[in-house]
Amino acid sequence: MRIDRVDIIHVKNPFVHPFETSFVRFVERDALLIKIYSEGLTGYGECKAFHAPLYNSEDNGTCLYILKNFLVPSILHQDIEGPAEFMAKVSFIVGNRLAKASIENALWDLKAQREQKSLKALWGGVYEEVKVGVSLGIEPTIPALLNKIEKYLAEGYHRTKLKIKPGKDLAVLKEVRRHYPDITLTVDANSDYTLADIELFKAMDEFNLAYIEQPLAEDDIIDHAVLQKAITTPICLDESIVSVDAARKAIALNSCKVINIKSSRCGGVGEAIKIHDLCREHNIPVWCGGMTELGIGRVQNISLASLPNFTLAHDIAASSRYFAEDITVPVVTTTGRCTLLVPDESNSICYQVDEKAIDRMLVGREV
Ligand code: OSB
Ligand code: MG
């Protein structure tokens, strides 16, 4: 496909409620969108970086720099076969996976349109519906958190994940379990602990958590292996799994029993599918992680989550979990059966990008 033009669109969409993680309190989604024009079609990708390098080493500023200086020039006014050829072409660039994935995702959108296939069909999806979970931020008080849990259970979320940080962990869990002894519950530490906290994680075993997500450092699968040996609760790695090679090593070391796949974090859907396949061979269940994305990213995540080994509930909530307004028509909505419908030829679900909504959220555009 000939690439005629690439726009980088900067938008901001306020959150309906602040979302606090161990690393920052988010009040809005500040994001770069990629729009690629090719032979009369337009493909969209969403860059999953944030305003600052807090989740990993990239942010919107570094992504914009890499996009403008390296990634866009590698495809603009050229003939390119598709996402895989693009990834091979930019493999000389070390890291910068969130930036690479934003273009890769837009090329998948174009490929799907050219071949008149759904992303689900292109990627080998099998499920018609995928399970929704909710990721709840750190709240100022335990009653405030209990209110949030109640709200999302009532909305039909299948799994509740609580963000934790040192000082906001065991006491919170104890109260939540006292009120909700039977819900499917997990915690996400976003790397905020070390092996010095091993006793704290041993104490978590009594809360019957489905898993503990990324307790230790991004680059430390050795310490995660030590911790996994010391506790019965499964560890789920998020930040650490930046590639299929990282997944292979984590599995070999028994650093985790579950993996959260984010196509952005590992440089694109091509790599995400390789991780999915590897985990399937090793009986490691996976689920699709989220980056509080807007609709473009949300819809692509739903399609990825339809692959067979995505058996646990995903961090792909309805648009309304974060936003009053989203950038797809329709916006993402749950079914009422703790699931989301996967867009496909076989059903009538089809999402269009809402250009007018993008214009309302617009900060700037680079053509
Ligand atoms: O670690 O999974 C994470 C949000 C921002 C950055 C990292 C993470 C998260 C979430 C929210 O947990 C997931 C979502 O609902 O999109
Ligand atoms: Mg996480």
Instruction: Count the beta strands.
Output: 15
CATH superfamily of the largest domain: Enolase-like C-terminal domain
CATH class of the largest domain: Alpha Beta
- Low-pLDDT stretches are none
- Helix/strand-derived category reads alpha/beta
**CATH topology category name of the largest domain:** TIM Barrel
Number of domains: 2
3D shape? globular
Give an overview in words.
With 367 residues, the chain is α/β, with parallel strands linked by helices. It starts with a strand and ends with a strand. It has helices at residues 60-75, 83-89, 97-115, 119-123, 142-154, 170-179, 198-204, 221-230, 244-252, 269-281, 295-304, 355-360, and strands at 5-20, 25-38, 41-47, 129-131, 133-136, 159-163, 185-188, 212-213, 235-237, 258-261, 286-288, 328-329, 339-341, 352-353, 362-366. The strands form four sheets. The protein has a seven-stranded parallel β-sheet with strand order 5-6-7-8-9-10-11. It has a four-stranded antiparallel β-sheet with strand order 3-2-1-15. A two-stranded antiparallel sheet has the order 4-13. The protein folds into two domains: 5-116 and 355-366, Enolase-like, N-terminal domain (Enolase-like, domain 1), CATH 3.30.390.10; 121-353, Enolase-like C-terminal domain (TIM Barrel, Alpha-Beta Barrel). The chain has twelve helices and 15 strands.
Please outline the helices and strands.
Blueprint: E1 5-20, E2 25-38, E3 41-47, H1 60-75, H2 83-89, H3 97-115, H4 119-123, E4 129-131, E5 133-136, H5 142-154, E6 159-163, H6 170-179, E7 185-188, H7 198-204, E8 212-213, H8 221-230, E9 235-237, H9 244-252, E10 258-261, H10 269-281, E11 286-288, H11 295-304, E12 328-329, E13 339-341, E14 352-353, H12 355-360, E15 362-366
Parallel strand pairs: 5-6, 6-7, 7-8, 8-9, 9-10, 10-11
Antiparallel strand pairs: 1-2, 1-15, 2-3, 4-13, 12-14
This protein binds 2-succinylbenzoate and magnesium ion (MG).
